Amino acid sequence: MVRSAIVLPELTEAVANYLEQVDLANCVQVCKAWSEVFTPLLYHHVQVLTSSHGMFRAKTPWEALQKHSSHVRTITVTTGEFPSLELWGSDCRNLTALYLGPLQTVFQRSLWCSRLMVLIANNPSIHTLKVYLYRDLARDILHQYKALKHLPALKNLLLLKDPSTRGSYWSDVAFQEILEGGHRLENLVCDFQYGGTTSLDTTMEETIHHQMWTEIKSLQVYDQIGSRAIELAQRCPNLTRLNVKLMDYYNKHCSILQQMTRHFQSGHLSRLEHLEISGLDVGSRGGGGGGGGGSVVESTIRDFLRVCASTTALKTFCLDGFYVSDELLTELWRYHAGSLENLSIMEKKGLQSSNVLQALSSCPNLRLFKGRLSRESLYLEDLVRSPWICKDLRVLHLVSSDRIELDDEMFASVIESPADTSSWPRSNIAWQRQVWAQIGALKNLETLHLSIHNEHCEIEIFSFSNGGMEHILGLKRLTELGIPEEGKESFMNNQDKQDLMQRRPRLRILYI
């Protein structure tokens, strides 16, 4: 290709998305034509990542930034000293996204915030603001400096917990700023705990006189007893995506889903298409899902799946950290199997093999399936009793749950197991070949992660040598294959790996 022939902005921008900053800088230096094309892309995302005071006295990089500041679209600042407007340059007025934190320390908080507000005032086009909570800094930005009122184009607000901060609570005054500015948002993430409380008996109908957030489609919140998250959810009648995190074990109700279930039962339409729920393993604490908090949360989820199905069908359903009973899955298949496109169930104990088969044989439109499999009750024959009908599946993760603690005698028997599979029962090998055949029939598969174990078997129960090569080579769209780090030699020997890499050089193989 002639170096000066790059004229398509769509092509160069697509290429730039896959290049590191140093590579973009090299492209700029190739020739004048390349410089004109790649220079704006080089300055699209500016990161200020150090808290060293010396960086502000180093003129050379800042002079280059000032010269091209009109090209800057995204700024990330994780330094304790916020750069002044003079350093950014007077033409830095086209920002679309601003990311603040995580921070280790902040020098002169008032100066940091005031400089930030000058940058915000010069960039009313910002539509995405991500702030990590550093002590009271984020609260000051929202409440004292009224940042949301200076961002008329804001659509995405992400308020995240700073990993260096222990306990992140927001006062009522900061929460009020979110309520007043939320009507413009399309996506809200509140990854923190609330200092204020609200009544759990408040219904959505009681908030009608408040300004509703009709534009917001995506909401991520913590749900804890007395949580103000309910008030946020009540203001969003057009939600299509909800991500709920249970804050602690003492939340035995999943109150947001309870309120939304009542709302739908009273005749209001559900537009929800994507539901994600994560939290502690409340089911196991509650007696394996048979009592305590886990059973109440599960009952709430089951009711919600049933009620919302009257007006909408879920495309995404994700559960992380919960005990999942057969009853809950039965409700999921009954009401949403035909619409599910993304399904992820990563419970701590792991799914039964029959549950995995239900997902793969009941959801024709499935594009992504991630399942954590039980080591205690995983049987290959259960995976092949019915054909997998999800022919458009793009991502498949089947990974065994964490290994159960073994005593010394059992552990010795495992690590001394033979690497070859000649001693395996013929029936086991036949089932393996059938599983590989099911995988090989998924012609649209792009990502495949496999790590299948059985705790009661002295050797791995699933091997690449029993049909894997033939069917993996038949998956022409496959770009990533994840294989187990644990027992990797018994899953795929070095010769098979070398052969596969030679025959599919573009296939990325990684250990999981």
From TrEMBL:
Pfam families: F-box-like (PF12937)
Domain F-box: 10-46
Highest taxon of the lineage: Eukaryota
Entry coiled-coil feature ranges: none
InterPro entries in alphabetical order: F-box-like_dom_sf, F-box_dom, LRR_dom_sf
Protein name in UniProt: F-box domain-containing protein
Species assigned in the record: Modicella reniformis
